[in-house]
Every structure is written in C-alpha cells, then in structure tokens.
Amino acid sequence: MGRQLEALRSSVEHLRAVVQRIDPTRFDSPAYPTKWSIADVLSHIGSGAVILTRRFDDIVEGRATDENFNQSVWDEWNAKPPSALVADALIADDALLERLESLQNDRRDQFQFPMGPMNLDFAGFVGLRLNEHVLHTWDVEVALDPAATLPSEATGAVIDNLEMIVRFAGKPSGEGHVLHVHAIDPSRNFKLTFGADSVDLSSSEPDGDVDLEIPAESFVRLIYGRLDPSHTPSAVNDRHLDELRRAFPGI
C-alpha cells in the first residue's frame, strides 16, 4: 500500500518536471496517441483527479456521489483553454495525491471503492490511479523524447498490478493458447492465457520455457497498447509482438 503511494508521488513529481520542459506553444501539439494533444492528456489527468477526489471523499464520508458530477467536471474542463488545462491539471493532481496520503491507516483498512462488479480496497484505488497516471505521463513525455521509457520506480509498482487490466483490455483471438513472458528490470515471469473469449495474466515460476523476453517497462506499455514498432526496444524478439499488439490495442 505504501509502495504504491510512494510510486504515485514519484509519478506526480515526474509529470510536473516533464510539463515544465514544455514550451507553452506546444500544448496543442500531438501527444500519444496523436488524436490527443498534450493539453488533452493533461485535461484527462486533471479532470480524472477532480472526479476521483470527489468519489474518494464521498466514500470516506459515507455519501452518495451526485450522478451528474462527472459530466459537470468534463463540461468545465472542456471549456478551458490549453494553458489552463495544463496548469489546472497539475493542481488537481497534487490535490488528489495529498488527499490520498492524508487518510489515516485505520480508515484505509475500511475503504471500499465499488467499480462495476468489483470492490477495490484502498491499495486497489491507489493502484488504479497510479497505472493511469504513469501511462499518461509517458503519453506526454514521449512527444518530447521519442526514446522515453517508463520510470523504473513506477514500472516496479505497475507491473505487479496488471492482472485486472489484462482481463479488461485484452482482446481474445478465439484460439486458446499460452505465452510465457519473462520481464526484465524488475524480473518477473508471467503466463498469458488466451481463451476463446478471455485473456488472463498470472505469475509463473521461471522454468526456461520463455516465448517473449522483454523489458518490464515495455511489457507494461504493451499491455496498455503503447508498444508500436517505433517505440519497441530493438533487442526485443518480435516473433509474438504482432499478435500481442492485436490483443492489446490500447485503453
């Protein structure tokens, strides 16, 4: 739990450092994916922070969230000019982090966040924000530096939080088979199981039977649909990458 909050703080600080390097005249420039501008990505991060802060406060205080709240936030943020989107996103991002960090341990133990058929505990809620934050920060940074990779601290936290994302984002091929993946730095071993109508990720023991060896940060980006050929390390064996890119087109 503490590790995820530390990783989120690191990512929030990293995003601020990345934004400070951007000439404001480039806020309308394409990010990744190119259909979004840099300001659009920051708007998504910022408006998401406002919404999550409200949901978090309502859960902690035992209140129901107004069903119109999300739309009111999106309407407000859609009306902002690019410079305000960027500036306000950093403010909202900081505010959410500080709110999460301020919750006492005993209340963290009681926290439950309903999401569809699931209930996330405090660590799951933080992990949800962390994953999104890390990947969208990369969406901005890679527009400045095509060789950008995910920071190592963030990668170490996010890669252990991928199973739910795989079940949600994976596109079944209709053909059952298993791929064994060895991720590097940090070292992890996974089994990707493709069923007729499902995709699952689970940890596995290293046994020498590896279909894909890949840097951990690249594997995270692969699952999130951000490992196109132009942003794939040259040392990665591409024998299964086309199949995996189809299975994980992005969220």
CATH superfamily of the largest domain, called what? dinb family like domain
Arithmetic mean of pLDDT: 93
CATH class of the largest domain: Mainly Alpha
Extended strand count = 6
CATH topology of the largest domain: Four Helix Bundle (Hemerythrin (Met), subunit A)
Q: Determine the fraction of residues in helical runs and give it as a percent range.
A: 40-55%
Q: Provide the structure class.
A: alpha+beta
Enumerate the spans where pLDDT stays under 50 for 5 or more consecutive residues: none
Q: Beta-sheet strand percentage?
A: 5-15%
CATH architecture of the largest domain: Up-down Bundle
What's the end-to-end separation, in Å?
A: 24 Å
Q: How large, in whole angstroms, is the Cα Rg?
A: 19 Å
**Major sheet: size, sense and barrel closure?**
4 strands, mixed
Oligomer state of the chains in this structure: single chain
Key phrases:
single chain; Four Helix Bundle (Hemerythrin (Met), subunit A); 251 residues; Nonspecific Lipid-transfer Protein, Chain A; alpha+beta; 53% helix; two-stranded antiparallel sheet; 12% strand; four-stranded mixed beta sheet
Q: Could you please describe the fold and organization of this structure?
A:
With 251 residues, this protein is α+β, with helices and mostly antiparallel strands. It folds into two domains: 2-158, Up-down Bundle (Four Helix Bundle (Hemerythrin (Met), subunit A)); 162-247, Nonspecific Lipid-transfer Protein, Chain A. The protein has ten helices and six strands. It has helices at 2-20, 38-61, 69-78, 82-102, 105-110, 122-144, 152-158, 163-169, 216-223, 241-247, and strands at residues 113-115, 118-120, 177-184, 188-194, 199-203, 212-215. The strands form two sheets. It has a four-stranded mixed β-sheet with strand order 5-4-3-6. The chain has a two-stranded antiparallel ribbon with strand order 1-2. A hairpin with a 4-residue loop joins strand 4 (188-194) and strand 5 (199-203). Helix 6 packs across helix 7 (152-158). The longest helix has 24 residues, at 38-61.
